[in-house]
Design a protein that fits this description.
Blueprint (H helix, E strand, L loop, with lengths): L6 E5 L5 E3 L2 H9 L5 E5 L6 E4 L1 H13 L5 H10 L3 E4 L6 E3 L2 H7 L4 E6 L4 E4 L1 H18 L4
Antiparallel strand pairs: 1-7, 2-6, 3-4, 3-5, 4-8, 7-8
Helix pairs in contact: 2-3
């Protein structure tokens, strides 16, 4: 498997670290991702976490714009100003920094959510509420409700 799938919730330890789920660590190893690019989601109160290829993809989009255009500036503001590089420690844990906590509302637990080529970090209650709302919206669209 080379995609981030499913979700799992893990506790943040006393030192502010959280264990990345084993299935996600396996994908990271398979894809040879040693350093993460973490950036604030554009819509949801979640952090997106992926390899350098995720940052490269956004930088290609920025480069395709006129470098002086408002669109290029907005994208750079969000991608470069809202992102950081991080690494796992030797035990497969990620530091839950104030940068992450302040944006997501994460306190003592983190829900990891697979998003194919990257994963997200959510406060569990926010993830559950957003997933329930998305499920309901799709149910109503399908005519089941």
């Amino acid at each position: 498997m080379n995609r981030f799938l499913s979700n799992a919730t893990n506790r943040v330890d006393a030192k502010g670290r959280v264990s990345v789920p084993a299935a996600f660590r396996a994908v990271l190893a398979q894809r040879d991702i040693r350093e993460f690019y973490c950036f604030q989601d554009f819509i949801y109160p979640a952090m997106n976490v992926g390899g350098p290829d995720v940052l490269d993809r956004f930088e290609r989009q920025i480069a395709a714009e006129d470098p002086f255009s408002p669109a290029a500036h907005r994208m750079s503001l969000l991608i470069h100003g809202g992102g950081v590089f991080m690494k796992l420690d030797a035990e497969g844990r990620l530091m839950v920094t104030d940068f992450i906590r302040d944006f997501t509302g994460i306190t003592n637990e983190v829900t990891f959510v697979g998003r194919a080529d990257h994963f997200q970090l959510w406060a569990p209650q926010r993830y559950e509420a957003m997933a329930a709302a998305a499920r309901e919206e799709l149910r109503l669209r399908s005519g089941s409700g």
